[in-house]
Amino acid sequence: MVIMKKILCIVLSVVMIASCCFVFADAAPTYKATWTLTANVNGTSYNSNNTITVKPGDAVKVTLRLANNYYIGPTCLQIFYNSNMFTGSRNGEFNKNGKLYGVCGKTWSTYTDWNDAHPDNLNQGWPNYSAEKLAEFKKNHHFLRVTMTPNVMMTSTTVGSINEELITITFDVSKSAQPGSTGQIILPVESRRDKNYKTGYFFCAIYKTEEINSKEMMVYADNQTFDCSKAVLNFKVASNSSAKLGDVNKDGKINSTDALLALQSSVGSKTLTAEQKTLADVNKDKVVNSVDALKILQYSVGIITKF
Asked: Which domains does the chain have, with CATH numbers?
């Protein structure tokens, strides 16, 4: 009886182990893609953890990186940027040493900015937001489009499990960008194509094997995940003015006109820009009032020589 119980326990153990093996063998793989944006402004590098200070006229170089765990098929994405901060993007430079570019080549790697896109394409590929949120988003956003497609004329196989930079794009900060204004460059996961948003322009297709075969390709899958948590860059415009403290109208002189502007602002009869308020707040107490106006006037006639 004891021997029979031992044999039974062994048999049950083997059955359980075999069952687990079958479960794991039948489990569908999870296809993961992680997207990251980084920026370089005047030689300094930034990531999604930073608020990046820029000046009107600055050139911002933004690099897109992809890390994934599957064989890559046709890939398309749209990066959005604030149109009231950036005049547009230019110089889309693909990483020519990258594995993905190596199977796509120049012909099948494309970059198109909003300013160069066909008008019919400007209404396509927006994030799958609610109607109200999308309407607000469209008011101050433009986008650029990047596509990379493995070229069957170059290779019969694709690449997979990459972790590399795909493209670097230059964005120009508008020379009329207002000091203190904020903006973003973002690759929103909400623009991803899936079963609920089949017209989305953000996808990174899946090949089940490295062989390029359309029958084995999925544009998207339920078990595919996109992580875009680090694909957003936040910006703030700083002053690009060389005006001195007290020169409220920025004409290169500090005189009674500047004092009058400070006084008018203090009583609400004149509205100053954020930069002008900083120039008028000569005692640096974060408030523009009659004290600042008096000091500016005293400086203008030589009673005081510094603020």
From this structure: 31-237 (2.60.40.680), 241-307 (1.10.1330.10)
